[in-house]
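The instructor's notes for this session suggest beginning with a concrete chain rather than abstract definitions. Hand out the sequence below and ask the class to guess, before any prediction is shown, which regions might be ordered.
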Amino acid sequence: MSTTDRVAATVGDYLPERSSPTWYVLALALALFVGFSIYLSLLYRSFWLTGADFGSYIHMFESTLHGQGFLEQGKYTVRGPESSYWGGHFTATLLAFLPIYALVPSPYTLLVIKSGLLAASVPMLWILARSHIESDRLAGLLTASYALNPFLWSAWLFDFQEQILLPLLIFAAYYTYSERRYIAFLAFLTLVLFTNEFTTILVGGFLVGLVVVSFRGGRLRREAPYIGIAFGILVAVRMISGWAIGQYTDASGLPTDVIAAPLQPFVEGSRVGIGQLVTIVLGNPELIIDSVSVAIFDKVVYLVLLLLPVLFLAVADELTLGSLIPFIGFAWVFAGRDVYYTFGAHYPLYLLPFVYIGAVRVLARIDTSEIVDTESARASARTVLSGLLALVLVVNLAVGVAIGAEKNAVPGTNDHTEMLEEGIDTVPDNASLLTQNDVFPHVAERPNATFSANRTLFYRYQRNNQKPTPEYILLDTKLETQGVEWAQPVRTTYAEQFGKEYGLARYDDEVWVFKRGYNGSPDGIRGNYTVEPRTYELDDFIPNDALRIDGQLVGSGGGESTYYWYGPGTMLPPGEYVATFRVNATSAGEQPVANLEVAAGTTPRPVASQNVTDTDGLETVTVPFTLDRMHSNVEFRASQAGGAGRLALENVTVQSASGPNSSRGAN
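After discussion, reveal the predicted structure:
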């Protein structure tokens, strides 16, 4: 036999037979891998992925590979952007990605890795299900239910995290256990525990369930040493995690603002450990009811949604219950953020493997005489379950698409995103730069780039440190990734410095490049400096003494100085402008019913105004004004001017006074 024939024969031993349904599973996994790799790459190009957590991982790998620090995140937290990720979470398996990233140092590498690992968990579940379930149809439908699970897709869309390893490792761990390959089981379980310290809570419950399963199966005497070793590994990993985190931070535990509101008054200090929370709850049992009752309807609904794709079968399994109960206890009693009990972000990657392991085990029992004692009854049960799982697949797919639509996860580049990329290029690569959450992934490879995604954490950092003074600050006030204006934390923090310590160096289409100490006139990102017209609709204004009626903000006059409405607190570059108020004013006399104002400043002061008496229907009223420097808080508002009558607002449009270059001004 030639070498080629021997290699072909060896490969053939590992490949499924041509008629095997495994090929369909592999095709599904391949389609998911390719589809999500492309989809996530397009979302990245569209500025849809964020710094927390995608950009921070890029920065971690770059800083580590170039010797600029160990897993530094570039994110402003209490510990600062130079802090290591290990100061908050311990993960050893994350380091396995470093050699791959070193070979192909690109953000796209991380997206392909993520899609590859999550797609690989699909055939791993198939192998597990097929080894337990007699019916290939049921095993295939359950695997497809996992592959199309909306919670899996939601986590797949959520940036990048080390938790992408968990489904593959957990499935492999239980498969090797079920095959009585205990050493391999312990190896995979160790990798699970070293992926993130939070896994110890779920794995601890899983091992308790394993003791019960082993006892009921009459295997406990044989398996006790291995389960005991597993518990020992769990304790060791917990100790190592605590030691490693302690090397990078003096503070440990959960911030008080992320725990449930009923528990917060009982916590002293800014952080608290799980052990302390347990002590507080045991000393005050009524807090359990108080915490669980917060948003109880949402908690129940999301738990039902988590279990629905497996037809609630998993609740009859000891392993699933053992792993879910600690998480649900944490999410429902201790946690104060809905991301836990709604299974948002990456948390499905912790839970789904245990849920589907439970479903596999329960379906396997249906094929035994312990539950259904005749072959015809078992066949009928399989048919019913197959139909229900097929229905679940359709629902899964529909919900998955709906989640993408709800998150506005529609990739697309346009002239504005191209403008933003050009604005990024105007900042020198080695300059210190502070930017917003959705821009950071595109500058995260730079050694001195930082970002803030949370105003509260930014302020906490400044309580113990001076306000950061980067050379450049880059904002995009037009970009709203996932419906969030991520520029807000940085914009609010530096409102007093913009136009003063930080001059506007370049501007175009709401892309702002500020430079520390810059005193000149701004330039355009593309040639001449211009300020585009912008229109503010009703949602941009805050009603004070007005109601929203038939698409207008409507208020009655008669008083003085009381505001009908105000807003939006926008940023405007220096220049000469005209604000055009589209209003309908009616007055019972000659006295003005309203005073239309343009105001600017931290506490906005009027810079221009125009009285309105009667417009004889819907008309435009113009208010010219000039800003001699950039302002970070500009309002367009109306106040009562003494006259009886009514004022209705439709919108406000702001544009340069004349010509594209007239808005150039001193900064």
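Then share the key points. The longest strand covers residues 575-587. Confidence is low (pLDDT under 50) at residues 659-667.
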